[in-house]
């Protein structure tokens, strides 16, 4: 279309005249997109937070085990010492290089058993851990409620939840007995001393999860390898690539590699459900912004019927007249869209860089999906938000301008020039 | 009919515009409106034709039909020998751009453009280079008393000035004919006279063909040919010895 530059120039001039309406429309667009980005980054930030804290208390983002272990949770389905070596090598090979945070790999021997004291007994999930990597992995021992976390060289120590301590009448320094079925099939007890306690706020953990040193667990349970090797990645989005890489490396080794959506199903559905809710909200916001823009562009067409008829009389075809309106709408949305996107990110950065603290607005210790809800929401500012927003802006611009443009293209010129 | 004889062109194209049994019927309840009922018209290049008639007699509709702004229900329109009534929208727009100049009763100008930009708009769409456009606009502005208003927006022009800018725009593209629908209706008589002087001058000096409608008896006096419409039909045609 040879005349396109002229039509675009005219569209620009028209926008310039409709300064107030343009500004209002732009403000609607700007506000909508800023809000969208705010909510998107906060939601994604919160989700990442949930995932991170959830998988740390469970099996990490990616976890390696023998086939059948996740169903049986039995020591019979364990990785041999050789398989643990192979797994650690595979894990090391798949560590993402380009990312910001550290990747932590930890080896565990876990079993279900009983924890008992003079006061009684409780079912327990007993996990033999490597203190150094586990401290970084689960962060359970980062801030003990009492005492200290396990250390390198500990022998008969245990780190237990505050709930268990209360119910079994235990304190730091108390002795307790752990009982479980060992590899040979017999039931065996292990005497340990409480090194410290933790409190997550999740009763099912605080009353059941016990950490003991890995060598103690191995000798007590008669196990050389491990029940699982788990990795915490710098970001949950790295799960799929690492999973794929590890699966490729371990092809045919008889070692199963699973991601957190499978090992933490409850958490996964919680994130999905929340995401779906967000999308509904975003869709509504999107629809409102689109309708506001459409309305503005459409009204500008109705107000300018005479002028558009005049353009037809001067020699523009219907399609070209529609194109002028279309370019106006797109210019308006794209320009204000970019301002909105920039404003959104700026808002997030200025106000929420250090997190949005909802502590005063919600009851303490809300738990779901195996995590404790963190009342401080941290926005996640990521490239994909930018890409999504720009795509969204474009879609809004196009969809809000198409109908008014089509209407303008179909105006009857003779009728339009009659309007005063 | 008033035809020029010194042209070597084929007979059909000797007319700036010609119609054959032109009808326009608007579908409407309870009965369709027959706005134009069988109008036969032929305008030679250089004519200065005035269409008169009571309100509702079909003047505007005929002008819109001549300019390809609306399509006839029946009958045909030729502009310089080219039949335009069945052309697709794009082609028809091109005909309007290159062969027709429109002047309406009021609000003829694009409010976002200056007087100069409005006047050169047709040339711009025709692809005439900027320097040439400016030169032609300025020369014409000087001739029709618009010098000095080039950079003003239509809002800041008097009604008469606006109409003159519209006439300037209409003639600058060197069309086959200029169609003006009651161009003086919103002007006081002195301003109306001045506008008519300009149109006459352009008709005389450049040979521009004008067809316009009016209610004003004093405007009718200026016509080289006066066509009276009544109820969508040509009721009377008066050829005077004036211009054309
Ligand atoms: N879109 C339309 N639908 C129905 N009827 C119409 C339409 N446009 C015009 N008419 C009718 O066609 C007839 C001719 O109208 P037109 O505007 O051509 O008259 P006119 O001579 O220009 O009148 P005026 O001097 O008032 O401008 C009138 O009866 C008018 O009501
Ligand atoms: Mg009329």
Number-wise, the strands of chain A total 14
Q: Major β-sheet of chain B, in short?
A: 6 strands, mixed
Distinct ligand kinds: adenosine-5'-triphosphate, magnesium ion
Q: How many strands of chain B? A: 10
Question: Could you explain the architecture of this structure?
Answer:
The complex is a heterodimer of chains A (420) and B (244). Chain A is α+β, with helices and mostly antiparallel strands. Helix content of chain A is 55%, strand content 18%. In chain A, β12 and β13 (371-372) form a beta hairpin. In chain A, α11 packs across α13 (318-352). The model of chain A has no long low-confidence stretch (mean pLDDT 88). Chain B is built from eight helices and ten strands. Mean pLDDT of chain B is 90; it is low at 1-10. Chains A and B meet through α1, α12, α13 and α15 of A and α1, α2 and α4 of B. Magnesium ion (MG) is lined by residues 59-60, 181 of chain B.
Structure keywords:
heterodimer; A: alpha+beta; 2 domains; B: 244 residues; Rossmann fold; 4-stranded antiparallel beta sheet; disordered N terminus; binds adenosine-5'-triphosphate; binds magnesium ion
Write the topology of this structure.
The complex is a heterodimer of chains A (420) and B (244).
Chain A: H1 4-17, H2 19-57, E1 62-65, H3 69-72, H4 81-94, E2 104-117, E3 120-129, H5 131-138, E4 146-147, E5 157-161, H6 162-168, E6 175-181, E7 187-198, H7 203-206, E8 209-213, H8 214-221, E9 228-232, H9 239-249, E10 256-259, H10 260-263, H11 265-303, H12 305-313, H13 318-352, E11 356-357, E12 367-368, E13 371-372, E14 376-377, H14 383-410, H15 413-418
Chain B: E1 17-26, E2 33-43, E3 48-52, H1 59-66, E4 74-79, E5 82-83, H2 89-99, E6 100-103, H3 115-119, H4 121-126, H5 130-143, H6 159-172, E7 177-181, H7 189-206, E8 210-214, H8 217-220, E9 225-230, E10 233-239
Parallel strand pairs in B: 3-8, 3-9, 6-7, 7-8
Antiparallel strand pairs in B: 1-2, 1-4, 4-5, 9-10
Bound molecules: adenosine-5'-triphosphate and magnesium ion (MG).
